[in-house]
């Protein structure tokens, strides 16, 4: 029976994955509860779904430590490598919905609502598929090198579009024509906008840090110093992802994106007028 060291290239910590699995599962439950109680738009369940995928990834990691197998290792790798892409999609959707509802006329192609909602979605799916294919190939010795380059390409695409998205986010945040519906914790739409975009930019920076870490890890190669440093994985991957989830649990954005038609109509009427 193969040992965990054959796949991880080091002796992994035995308790940490179980703790992480429980923490991410709790985050998923909290997120689901927030969306249901606030009657927010259903696309906000993306956050909970991603937390469940993270939890499952750590479950596979825990099992793989004691009962190592290629199937468990591939499942763990794909879930922990690929599922965080949905967090970028979550941010894309937030800014895209704001741009679409505000209906601001902007000649720049990158600022068109369709590009923000669809273009970034396509880029995220492409990056997702490339990383998923590369991650699976890296778990097989005969295809590890090819898988490495595919993963690097997928992460490079993600970083490129994250850079463009950061610029768009700053433009939307600074432009008074883009409006956000006030929530129960905001005095008005202007303060709601500041609060919402603060968390979007903060979480985007964390996604950047995590993606750069993963990119350097793949460039260094399987079995390299970075891959073999388990502490780096927990600091630059797990901690970054957890901080993103906690940010969106503490600063819940669902109040700005109502589900029912009456709230949406009030939202649309509000967005037709400038901030007072």
From TrEMBL:
Entry-linked PANTHER family: PROTEIN RTA1-RELATED
GO cellular component, as recorded: membrane
Highest taxon in the source lineage: Eukaryota
Pfam family, one: RTA1
Membrane topology, record value: Multi-pass membrane protein
UniProt name for this protein: RTA1-domain-containing protein
Subcellular location: Membrane
Chain ranges passing through the membrane: 15-36, 43-60, 72-92, 120-140, 152-173, 194-213, 233-254
Coiled coil residues, start to end: none
Keywords (A to Z) from UniProt: Membrane, Transmembrane, Transmembrane helix
InterPro entries according to UniProt: RTA1 (IPR007568)
């Amino acid at each position: 029976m193969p040992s965990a060291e054959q796949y991880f290239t080091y002796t992994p910590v035995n308790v940490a994955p179980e703790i992480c699995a429980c923490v991410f599962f709790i985050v998923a439950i909290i997120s689901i509860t927030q969306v249901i109680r606030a009657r927010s738009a259903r696309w906000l369940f993306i956050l909970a779904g991603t937390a469940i995928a993270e939890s499952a990834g750590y479950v596979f990691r825990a099992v793989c430590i004691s009962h190592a197998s290629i199937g468990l290792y591939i499942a763990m790798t794909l879930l922990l490598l690929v599922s965080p892409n949905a967090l970028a999609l979550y941010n894309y959707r937030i800014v895209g919905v704001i741009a679409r509802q505000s209906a601001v006329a902007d000649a720049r192609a990158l600022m068109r609502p369709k590009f923000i909602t669809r273009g970034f979605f396509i880029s995220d799916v492409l990056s997702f598929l490339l990383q998923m294919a590369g991650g699976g190939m890296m778990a097989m010795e005969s295809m590890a090198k090819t898988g490495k380059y595919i993963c690097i390409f997928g992460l490079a695409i993600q970083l490129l579009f994250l850079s463009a998205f950061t610029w768009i986010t700053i433009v939307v945040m600074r432009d008074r024509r883009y409006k956000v519906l006030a929530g129960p914790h905001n005095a008005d739409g202007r303060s709601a906008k500041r609060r919402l975009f603060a968390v979007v930019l903060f979480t985007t920076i964390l996604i950047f840090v995590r993606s750069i870490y993963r990119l350097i890890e793949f460039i260094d190669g399987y079995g390299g110093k970075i891959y073999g440093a388990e502490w780096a994985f927990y600091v630059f991957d797990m901690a970054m992802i957890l901080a993103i989830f906690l940010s969106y649990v503490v600063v819940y954005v669902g109040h700005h994106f109502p589900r029912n038609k009456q709230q949406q109509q009030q939202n649309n009427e509000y967005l037709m007028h400038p901030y007072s």
